[in-house]
Amino acid sequence: MSDPFVTIPKGNPFSAxxxxxxRLAQTLVWLVGAGILLSLFLLPKMGLLLFWNILIPVAxxxxxxxxxxxxxxxxxxxxxxxxxxxxxxxxxxxxxxxxGKLNLLSVLLLYAIVPLRHAVFNTDGIxxxxxxxxxxxxxITLGFFYEWKSAWCSGxxxxxxxxxxxxxxxxxxxxxAHCHKCMNCVVxxxxxxxxxxxxxxxxxxxHKLSGWLIVGGLPxxxxxWFHVPxxxxxxxxxxxxxxxxxxxxxxxxxxxIYAIFAELVVPGSEKKLSGLFAAAGVSCYYWxxxxxxxxxxxxxxxxxxxxxxSYVPFWVxxxxxxxxxxxxxxxxxxxxxNKQSWAVRPPYANKFLK
Length: 354
Ligand code: SF4
Known about the structure:
Bound molecules: iron/sulfur cluster
Oligomer: single chain
Structural class: mainly alpha
Largest sheet: 2 strands, parallel
Strand content: under 5%
Number of helices: 14
Strand order of the largest sheet: 1-2
Number of strands: 2
C-alpha cells in the first residue's frame, strides 16, 4: 500500500528546468546564509537571533521530514561543493576506513562544539561567525581534494550524524541537485539509500562506533544540554568543562539504555530501535526549545525569540510539544519504512562504477 505521506517526484527529476529551480533556491539560500554570517560580525545581536533562534530550531524538523531539501540548499554545502562543480577538485575517493573515521570524528565534533554554545556561541556573534568560517574553510579545502559529498557533507560535517539519525523515513524525495552523475563516492550514500539510518553501515569499527554514539547518545545529550544556562561557566578557562557535565551525563545514561536494548532486539530491528531513539531526541529538543523560544523556558533569557508569556498560557505550548512528540514517534517508530531516500540518485557516471 502506498504511503499517503510520501511525495515522489514525477517526470524527469534531473530535467534542465528542475535543476535550474534548484540552482535558484541554492543561490537564494546561499545569499541568506551569507547575510546571516555578515550580520554575526556586523550586527551580532541580529545575527545570533537569526542563526540560533530561527534557522537552527527549524533544522531538526526539516531533517525528519525532508533532509534532501536541506542537503540541496545548505549554504555550507553549496560553498564546499564549488570546487567540484567548477572542475577544480582532484576527486579522490575515500576508503571505507577513512570514511568511517570521518563519520566518527563528525559525531565527536558535534558533541564537542554544541556544549560550547552555552559558554560562547549563543551570546557571541563574532565567535559564532568565526566558527562558521572555520567549518567552511575545512569543508571547501576537502572539496578541492575529494569527490562530491564524500569528505564533508557525508563525512566530517558535524550536522550530518543528526540528519542521518532523524531522516530515516522521509516525506519528500527530491532530485539530488549537486551531484551531476553518481560516482559512488560514499557507500552506502546517505542521500540515495532508502531509509538510511546511522546503524545502516557496519563496515568498520569506526562506522559502528559513530552509529552507536549518535543513536544512543543524542537523546540524553540533548536533555542534559537544556539543563545548562548560557554564560554560566565563562568566569574562567578552568570552568569550561562545566558546560560538558550535564550533556555528557545525559549522553552516558541513554547510551547505557541503548546498549541494553541493542542486545535485546532481534536482528533486522535496528532501524526501529534507531527510530525510537531519534524520536526521543527530536521530541526532547522541541519539548525544551519551543517554550524557550516564546519566553517560557527554564532560563528566561536563553534561546529567546519572542515573548508570548503574557498572551499565551504555558499549557498551550506544552500541549503543542506533546502533539509534536506523538507525531515524531508515529513518524519514526510506528509508520512503516517507506523505502524512500532523501534524494533521487543521479545516473551513474559509468555502469562499471556501480
Ligand atoms: S549521489 Fe553518488 S556521487 Fe553523489 S554523494 Fe552519493 S554516492 Fe557520491
